[in-house]
Design goal:
53% of the residues lie in helices and 14% in strands. It has ten helices and 13 strands. It has helices spanning 8-33, 44-98, 105-126, 190-193, 233-242, 279-282, 308-321, 324-378, 382-406, 411-415, and strands at 129-130, 134-135, 147-153, 160-167, 175-179, 182-185, 200-202, 216-220, 223-227, 247-251, 258-262, 270-272, 302-304.
């Protein structure tokens, strides 16, 4: 039971006036933020749905940015590859021209000189630097130059010329997330794009009695292949062939050594695991793991299958020698292999770009839909809110006027 006193009218008036002021302040906050959920208790169910929509919208915005970056990245790669295919087409035209047998050695030397310049431009494109000072065809080693030129004297040429182009890049494993649990590969490694022939690696080590002495693994073209204690050469061959690596293995019937062959035209990266068995080194495939991405083939291993640059160098040297037979057969054939692989790789990049564009379009349709769902949960009807705020102000003014008339005077009023 409350005690009745002369202070009750003042206390009650102050309580209700403060509650009106709080309601006015809450409405002003809603209008200023254009959000009807100032506090979670305003509508707990709508607040929980709004949190889920905001989280989903944030992820969609991130996916949209990722797909847009991927599209720009693919555009730059495609432009570089398109320039390269034009150079390869010009090289093939020179090969067809030189194979006619009606041109003098001086004419062929002029063609060889042009081929050398085209070769240098092709290497320049392969070593192109994209945004962020990152190499476009280095795979994961984006700050390393993927192709290194080795110069020397070429018979029939003038001065130092390119005698070898070494691939120093790594595999391409960078990817970006474009939707929940879905990733899209970003890069095209130079060892894939600028290769012409399927590589073959023949070991000269007789592995008839070979046994794996400790557990471990090795890597072929970026795919890890585990081995166990006691594995023999046939079991290692089976493990390679059962793996996802684009490499097939066999046993050389003459040397009883391991033979590796790429299923596609690409540079085979071969490395042993950091710990455990050193299978590839023991079998005579490599001499040790790569240092600064330098080739690590065993000195006695026989490695076949060249890059686009190798095809161009062979054609150029044949021009300088005046070897019409080589130009008309292996020279043109090498250019055809280079162009075929390059066209396939360009189609692969084009497919990735098409997928990224379709994903980008879908995400940009989803973002407005989710934004509308979020707005329905948290949005404020501004016209209704402005009307309510005006009524609150009027009610508050009326309350103040009534309180001034109703509340009795105190001693302080007489002391003024």
């Amino acid at each position: 039971m409350n005690r009745i006193s002369s202070d009750m009218p003042f206390s009650n008036s102050q309580f209700f006036l403060r509650r009106q002021e709080a309601a006015i302040s809450n409405m002003q906050n809603r209008i200023s933020g254009q959000n009807r959920l100032v506090e979670l208790r305003d509508d707990p169910l709508a607040a929980s749905r709004a949190v889920r929509y905001e989280s989903f919208l944030a992820r969609l915005n991130r996916f949209e940015q990722n797909t847009r970056f991927a599209m720009d990245h693919y555009t730059m790669i495609h432009e570089s590859m398109n320039s390269s295919i034009n150079i390869l087409q010009r090289m093939r035209e020179l090969a067809v021209t030189g194979a006619h047998g009606i041109y003098s050695q001086e004419d062929l030397s002029i063609m060889g000189t042009e081929l050398n310049e085209l070769l240098l431009e092709l290497v320049s494109i392969a070593n192109r630097v994209g945004p962020g000072v990152k190499q476009m065809f280095s795979g994961d080693s984006v700050f390393s130059e993927p192709f290194r030129i080795v110069e020397g004297v070429v018979q029939g040429g003038h001065g130092n010329m390119v005698v070898r182009v070494e691939y120093r890049g790594s595999g391409a494993t960078r990817s970006t997330e474009i939707s929940e649990g879905t990733r899209l590969e970003l890069d095209m490694a130079g060892g894939d794009a600028f290769w012409a022939e399927r590589m073959q690696i023949f070991s000269q080590v007789d592995a008839t009695d070979y046994r794996v002495s400790e557990p471990g693994s090795f890597f072929l073209s970026g795919v890890e292949i585990p081995v166990s204690v006691g594995d023999t050469l046939p079991s290692i061959v089976a493990r390679i062939n059962d793996s996802a690596a684009p490499v097939r293995a066999s046993v050389d019937p003459q040397t009883n050594g391991l033979v590796l062959e790429g299923t596609t035209a690409h540079f085979i990266r071969a490395e042993d695991g950091q710990t455990g068995a050193t299978v590839l080194a023991d079998l005579g495939i490599i001499s040790g793991n790569m240092v600064n991405n330098a080739p690590n083939w065993a000195s006695d291993a026989s490695v076949h299958g060249g890059s686009i640059f190798d095809m161009a160098i062979r054609l150029r040297d044949a021009m300088f020698r005046g070897d019409h037979e080589f130009i008309g057969s292996l020279g043109i054939g090498g250019m055809d292999l280079a162009i075929d692989n390059f066209v396939g790789r360009m189609a692969e990049i084009g497919s990735r770009q098409e997928r990224a564009e379709l994903t980008w379009q879908r995400i940009n349709r989803e973002i407005p839909n989710v934004t509308g769902m979020l707005s329905r949960e948290t949005g404020l009807d501004m016209a209704s809110a402005a009307t309510d705020l005006q009524w609150m102000h009027m009610a508050h003014q009326a309350t103040l006027a009534t309180a001034a008339r109703v509340l009795p005077q105190t001693l302080l009023d007489f002391l003024r």
